[in-house]
C-alpha cells in the first residue's frame, strides 16, 4: 500500500535542535514517511506549514515564542490542516485534554523509544492511506468503514468481522482476548460471551488473520495442537 501513494510529508517541530534531529532520523526510518522540514519556533512552524503543506506535524508543546496548543488552534483554521502527533514532556491532564479536543491523533510523552513513535506513525500511515483510498472511490463511507477508521486511529488496527457476522460480537471476542491474563481457547471465549465454540473459533481465526490477536499452538502428547489466542501488538 505504501508503494501506491506518495510518502507522508512530515514537519518536525522541537525547540531543541538535537532532539529535532533525532526525531527526524526516527521518522525517516519508518516506511511511507519523509521529513520535509524542521522548525524550532511557533512562528517558523506556521510558516513551514503554509509553505510546505505537510500531511503530518510532530509537534512539541513548549516553544520559545508560543505554545504548541496555540499552533494546533491555528492549524485547525488552515484550508487543509495536517494531522498532529504531539511529542512533549507535558504530562498534566490540562495539556492532554486540550490536545485531544483540538484533534491530536496521538500524544507521546518524552522520553520515548523509537518503537513507540514507529507504532504511532504506522497507525497514522495506515489511517492516511485508508482515507485516501476512500476519497479516490465514492468519497463516502458507510458506518462499518467509519467505525474502522476510528478504531484504526485508536489502536493501529482495523478488525473487520467475517462476511455475514456481527461487528459487536467481533468486538466482544477481541476485548475478551485482550483482557485475559493468559492465552485463551475458543471454548474459553464461547463460555465468556455466550456463543457456540464454532462461532467463537470463526471470529478468533478472523482476528488472527488481521493481526488483532496472536495465535499460539499448544502441543500435547497426542493429536492436533490446541489453538490458543492472546492479545496481539495492535489489540
Describe the model:
The mean pLDDT is 85. The chain starts with 7 loop residues before the first strand and ends with a strand. It has 2 domains: 8-136, 3-Layer(aba) Sandwich (Rossmann fold), CATH 3.40.50.2300; 159-231, Orthogonal Bundle (Arc Repressor Mutant, subunit A), CATH 1.10.10. The chain has 235 residues and is an alpha/beta fold. The protein has a 5-stranded parallel sheet, with helices on both faces. A two-stranded antiparallel sheet has the order 4-5. It has helices at residues 17-28, 42-52, 68-75, 93-101, 114-136, 143-155, 167-179, 186-193, 197-209; strands spanning 8-13, 33-39, 56-59, 62-63, 66-67, 83-88, 106-109, 213-218, 226-231.
CATH H-level superfamily of the largest domain: Response regulator
Q: On the 0-100 scale, what is the average pLDDT?
A: 85
Mass-distribution shape: elongated
CATH architecture verdict of the largest domain: 3-Layer(aba) Sandwich
Give the strand order, joined by hyphens, for the main sheet. Answer: 2-1-3-6-7
Distance between the termini: 21 Å
Using the coordinates above, name the CATH class of the largest domain. Answer: Alpha Beta
The total of helices stands at 9
Structural class: alpha/beta
Q: Regions with pLDDT < 50 over 5+ consecutive residues?
A: none
Question: How helix-rich are the residues, as a percent range?
Answer: 40-55%
CATH topology of the largest domain: Rossmann fold
The domain tally reads 2
Amino acid at each position: 500500500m505504501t508503494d501506491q501513494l506518495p510518502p507522508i510529508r512530515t514537519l518536525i517541530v522541537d525547540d531543541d535542535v538535537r532532539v529535532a534531529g533525532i526525531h527526524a532520523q526516527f521518522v525517516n526510518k519508518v516506511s511511507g514517511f519523509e521529513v520535509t522540514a524542521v522548525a524550532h519556533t511557533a512562528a517558523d512552524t506556521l510558516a513551514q506549514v503554509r509553505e510546505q503543506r505537510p500531511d503530518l506535524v510532530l509537534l512539541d508543546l513548549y516553544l520559545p515564542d508560543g505554545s504548541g496548543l496555540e499552533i494546533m488552534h491555528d492549524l485547525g483554521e488552515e484550508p487543509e490542516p495536517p494531522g498532529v502527533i504531539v511529542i512533549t514532556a507535558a504530562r498534566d491532564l490540562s495539556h492532554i485534554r486540550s490536545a485531544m479536543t483540538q484533534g491530536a491523533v496521538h500524544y507521546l510523552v518524552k522520553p520515548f523509544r523509537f518503537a513507540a513513535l514507529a507504532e504511532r506513525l504506522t497507525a497514522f500511515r495506515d489511517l492516511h492511506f485508508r482515507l485516501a483510498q476512500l476519497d479516490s472511490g465514492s468519497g463516502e463511507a458507510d458506518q462499518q468503514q467509519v467505525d474502522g477508521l476510528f478504531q484504526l486511529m485508536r489502536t493501529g488496527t482495523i478488525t473487520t468481522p467475517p462476511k455475514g457476522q456481527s461487528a459487536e460480537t467481533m468486538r466482544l471476542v477481541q476485548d475478551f482476548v485482550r483482557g485475559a491474563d493468559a492465552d485463551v481457547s475458543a471454548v474459553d471465549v464461547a463460555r465468556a460471551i455466550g456463543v457456540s465454540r464454532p462461532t467463537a473459533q470463526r471470529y478468533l481465526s478472523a482476528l488472527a488473520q488481521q493481526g488483532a490477536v496472536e495465535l499460539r499452538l499448544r502441543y500435547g502428547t497426542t493429536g492436533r495442537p490446541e489453538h490458543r489466542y492472546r492479545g496481539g501488538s495492535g489489540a
